Amino acid sequence: MSQRRTFPLLALVGVTAIWGVTFVQVQDALALYPLFAFLAVRFAISTIALAPFAWTPLRALPREGYLAGVGVGALLAAAYGLQTAGLDLTTVASTGFITGLYVVFTPLLALALFGTRVPRALWAGVALAIAGLLLLSGVPGGSTVGNALVLASALAAAFQIAAMERFAPRYDPRALTFLQMATSLVGFAVLAVVLGQVEVPRGWTVWGALLVTGLFAGALGYLVATWVQARTTAARAALVFTLEAPFAALFGVLLADEVLGWAGWLGCAVMMTGIVLAEPAAADALRRLLPRGR
């Protein structure tokens, strides 16, 4: 297996690790700062960080590229907003599991919209990812309305990932990522104003979370994800994205003294097994890390 396939996979795994570690920081920050104000400032930081690098590609971007960037940005903002609204009404466990269902929706949408066929091994990986999420998050419960909002969030995320399969290879990743961040910024800024959540961030807990999510999880993370999605299918990307859940659980144990029972650890292992079975580059990466026999 060539490094051309292995490196993008490892880069995407690194992005999911960054997304996972931010859960702890964001949880602490949201106890002190309004949610939609946080999201607006977060995406403002991402937009500003990307602006110097995206300026030249944006000038060369055709009108169709702008429409694509704004469209996938709107889907990204919808996924964040609907998930947040649902989380306010339902349980954390239900939110985690239902959000992960985009790993099922994405290949189906990619097949329906673009005719991208999914190998049987990848469907096996998807099934194991769902089983792992169920073990990690538990059986969904909570509010019916809240769960419906989170399900809509998962659909928006699936549409965003499927759309990136089509657009990421066509347009410069810097321009496409900038437009996603800027569109999300506008959407959340409007919501923050409408809901009266306009406040100046204060304190290192809030600013630390904003800088990490804005610079690393946002600007860098989505830039890498856009670059990788130009080199893989939406279904494979969605499968790797599910690693965000076990990474979040792991960092919760390491950084927030949370307890992960046997079912949680088993769920993480099952999800990793599914990715290794479904993604040849993952198996190749593990072989590179393991010592070779004499």
Task: Give an account of the 3D structure.
- It is a single chain.
- The protein is an all-alpha fold and 294 residues long.
- It has one domain (3-282).
- 81% of the residues lie in helices and 0% in strands.
- It is built from 13 helices and no strands.
- The protein has helices spanning 3-30, 35-60, 63-87, 92-99, 102-114, 120-137, 144-167, 173-194, 204-229, 234-241, 244-256, 262-278, 280-289.
- The radius of gyration is 19 Å and the shape is globular.
- The model is unreliable at 289-294 (pLDDT under 50).
Which terms would index this structure?
mainly alpha, 81% helix, 294 residues, 0% strand, disordered C terminus
Q: Structural class, from secondary structure content?
A: mainly alpha
Structural shape: globular
Helix/strand order? HHHHHHHHHHHHH
- The share of residues in helices is over 70%
Q: Main beta sheet, described?
A: none
Contiguous low-pLDDT stretches (5 residues minimum) are 289-294
The rounded distance between the terminal residues' Cα atoms is 21 Å
Detail the topology: elements first, then pairings.
Layout: H1 3-30, H2 35-60, H3 63-87, H4 92-99, H5 102-114, H6 120-137, H7 144-167, H8 173-194, H9 204-229, H10 234-241, H11 244-256, H12 262-278, H13 280-289
Helix pairs in contact: 1-9, 1-11, 1-13, 2-8, 2-9, 3-7, 3-8, 4-6, 4-7, 5-7, 5-10, 6-12, 7-10, 8-9, 12-13
Provide a compact summary of the structure.
With 294 residues, the protein is an all-alpha fold. It has helices spanning 3-30, 35-60, 63-87, 92-99, 102-114, 120-137, 144-167, 173-194, 204-229, 234-241, 244-256, 262-278, 280-289.
